Amino acid sequence: MERFSARTEADRAYQEARTDRTAGPLTDLLPVSTDTVGRRATVSGRYDPEAEFQVPDRRVDGQDAFYVLTLFRTDGGRALPVVRGWLPAGTPSASVPPPPRGRTTVTGALQASENQRTRGTRAGGLPEGRIGVISAATFVSLMPHEPRPPYDAWITVQEPTGPLRAVPPVVPEGAGLDLKAFQNLGYTGEWFVFAGFVVFMWFRLRRRELEQSPEARTTGPVPTPPSRTPSPSPDPVPVALSRPVVGSDLGEDARKDRILKVVGGVLAAVFVGFLAWSGTAYLTGQNYSGELVTFEVVSPEAVDARLSVRKNTDAVVVCTLRALSEQGREVSRVDVRFPDREKDVDRRVRVRTTDRATALELVGCQDAKAG
């Protein structure tokens, strides 16, 4: 009940933030929490037209879409991801309007950084100019020469310039009356059901115990014992043994068993054949493989990794690495590209992080041409 109440309060705060039209300074609303997410934030600075990205595989208003994201250089010196709007999937890049030039003030809904569990995100392997996750962990690797990491937040402009359309604010984790919230309420009901079941079973067992007690068995007239006079045994009846007749029930059962065995064997053969075919198709279709050999945390802002990749010389492979903090939070996500004309590659890369990392893992490798 406490969890459901907390989700209800978080949803109420989120709805109030969405309806509140007053905008506050960005720095006053950070770090992002359930009380500030969705609030209108304002910040001054300049758009960086060289740092514009598309965020594909999104769903808005029932349409396949992509976000248009541009890094915003704030007056404080740190970069802020700004989603200027969305366009339907398949829209040519030439149709994307350029960001405003010069110093400007941006106002939009404050959003928390995404992660792998956020709907619509992609692990990596996208072509250049596209990203799959909007987070500081993604941009810190794309900005290796920046003195400070970007803000761990982003804003979505609610009044974009045409033909861009506004991206609606996303309900953050821990807020919203979704299925998980009502699961907590359902658990409360389950405990009451369990309690009622225990009481019911206690009464039922108690009643059975009383019914089987000696007092319950001796109630009423005492039955008369049966007579012990032996009765004459009947004459034995001769039994004739015969072989089972063909077509009897026994023969029918044997025939059904044979049919079931044949059908089971055929299904098993089809299943094994399907596994062999799918495994062969997977192995022959994979013309690359990657391995994270080792890594070393060299500073609170960087991790050195050794990555080994085997591939065909004509393949362009992108391997995605992500670094995790001691609390399991993602502090970096980077795509390492291995171009063609390389076969067996053993490369050392430096992964920049937003905080000290304690673990580094290889998310996977993908064919960049297919992505």
List strands and helices in order, with pairings.
Blueprint: H1 2-19, E1 23-25, H2 26-29, E2 40-60, E3 63-74, E4 79-88, E5 103-112, H3 136-142, E6 153-157, H4 179-211, H5 214-217, H6 249-285, E7 288-299, E8 302-311, E9 317-324, E10 330-338, E11 344-352, E12 359-367
Parallel strand pairs: 1-2, 4-6
Antiparallel strand pairs: 2-3, 2-5, 3-4, 5-6, 7-8, 8-11, 9-10, 9-12
Helix pairs in contact: 1-4
Précis, in short:
The protein has 6 helices and 12 strands. The chain has 371 residues and is α+β, with helices and mostly antiparallel strands.
End-to-end distance, in Å?
45 Å
Into which percent range does the helicity of residues fall?
A: 25-40%
Largest sheet: spatial strand order: 2-3-4-6-5
Spans where pLDDT lies below 50 across 5 or more residues: none
Number of strands: 12
Biggest beta-sheet profile: 5 strands, mixed, barrel
Secondary-structure-derived class:
alpha+beta
| Mean pLDDT metric | 82
Number of H- or I-type helical stretches: 6
β-strand percent reads 25-35%
Which outline best applies? extended
Question: Roughly how many Å is the radius of gyration?
Answer: 35 Å
Provide key terms for this protein:
371 residues, alpha+beta, five-stranded mixed barrel, three-stranded antiparallel beta sheet, 6 helices, 28% helix, extended
Structure write-up:
The protein has 371 residues and is α+β, with helices and mostly antiparallel strands. The protein contains six helices and twelve strands. The protein has helices at residues 2-19, 26-29, 136-142, 179-211, 214-217, 249-285, and strands spanning 23-25, 40-60, 63-74, 79-88, 103-112, 153-157, 288-299, 302-311, 317-324, 330-338, 344-352, 359-367. It has a five-stranded mixed β-barrel. Strands 7-8-11 form a three-stranded antiparallel beta sheet, with no helix packed on it. Strands 10-9-12 form a three-stranded antiparallel beta sheet. Helix 1 packs antiparallel against helix 4. The longest helix is centred in the last third of the chain and has 37 residues, at 249-285. The radius of gyration is 35 Å and the shape is extended. The model has no long low-confidence stretch (mean pLDDT 82).
